[in-house]
Amino acid sequence: MNSSNQVLVQRLFWRLHFWSGLLTAPIVLFAALSGILYIFTPQIESIKHAHLDRANTTGVAQNLDQQIQAATTQFNTKNLRSIVPAYRENETTQVIFGESKKAMQGTEHTQHQAVKKITEHSTDSPTIIAYIDPASATVQGSIAEEDRFKNWSRKLHSTMLQGDAWRWIIELGASWLLIMMITGIYLWWPRGKATWIGVLFWERGNTRNNWRYFHGITSIVLGLITLTIILTGLTWSKYAGENFRSMQKVTGQNAPRAPMTLHSTPIEGAVALSLQAIYEKAKQQVPDIQLQITPPKGENGVWRIENFDRSQPTKRFQLQLDAYSGAVLYQAGWQQIPLLAQATAVGIPFHRGEFGWWNQALLVLVGLAVIFSVISGFVMWLQRRKALSISAPKIESKHVRAVPWWMWLTLLGLGFALPVLGVSLGVLILFEMAYLVRRRTMHVM
Predict the structure, then answer these.
(1) Quick one: fold of 256-336?
(2) I want to staple 305 with a disulfide (CB 3.0 to 4.6 A). Which of 17, 319, 406, 431 is the partner?
(3) What is the pTM of this model?
């Protein structure tokens, strides 16, 4: 691309950068602020739900079957979904009831209220978590799954608490934030008479130059981490996430799923193994990590065990055991996960800040950098804006013609991979075409 075309493309990128920032700034600000709140989920939950997560008594843990019996005497046995045995001495065992994941109204419930909500005649029961004191084998408390702070803050960040149909809005903000990064790097990159010293080091100048310098440098310094956060967030978004999962299936890079067709083989006179026995057999087969155990459905069902802790991706596993013999019917671990699925398994916990304080600190810096980028961009716009005008960078047809074919192809690929971006970009292109036609018509007249 020659220097004259570079100048023309730079103007077009400036206009695209301007529109993407101006139109999606509120969404990006909300995502950054709610994301920072979500980062501190472990600390907030340790305070808010301490009376549920920390056992009231100390001592040797009772048999797991005794612990479960304490919960099933108060809750509907038929709705038992899974068990998360206590992993550390001061933790409670979690017993999860209910098949539905629909949100409940209200906050924490007493045992009596939970029993009233989960009845034998319920076909769409709310999910309730009962917390068992392992040493005394008594129900310490219960809560609706949706009332845990981590679930509330995750829904705030992904749907603004408006339901799954609203996920596209956050996806819209994330998609255009990616465009802002690409166009921003292009505009920041030194070319022509510009030097690396000029873009990397601050020189005293007027206020507008100072805002422009810090607007660019904060985004560049944390650019790689910001890009990781955007891409990992998009992998579980509604539409871009579906494309990503489809690509994983086509390339064979999706994480292996335990087969649902395996069956236990009941031998005449044989008695199904107890939960405690299954737990002990599972511990012999899998890494030292907190487990989530799903009981068999029917007499031919199997025990399904997987890691409950997602902050240790290399210890991920899936295990299925025969309900009568305890024989291993299926087992898969980290080594069986394809490379792309491994990257996702690491990237998503990183996005959530689950790798410890250093992870949380990095994400807070990224969130603050995004917030500053939006605010500083708005300030620069106000500084250059003329009265009663949007003051968007002006373009003509020659700016569009200067864009090389591979850039258009790249944009088309992004629009296909990120459908919400593609649709909104199509609307913007139609708007810009109308603007150019109107501008040409006015010049002719």
Answers:
(1) Nuclear Transport Factor 2; Chain: A, (3.10.450)
(2) 319
(3) 0.86
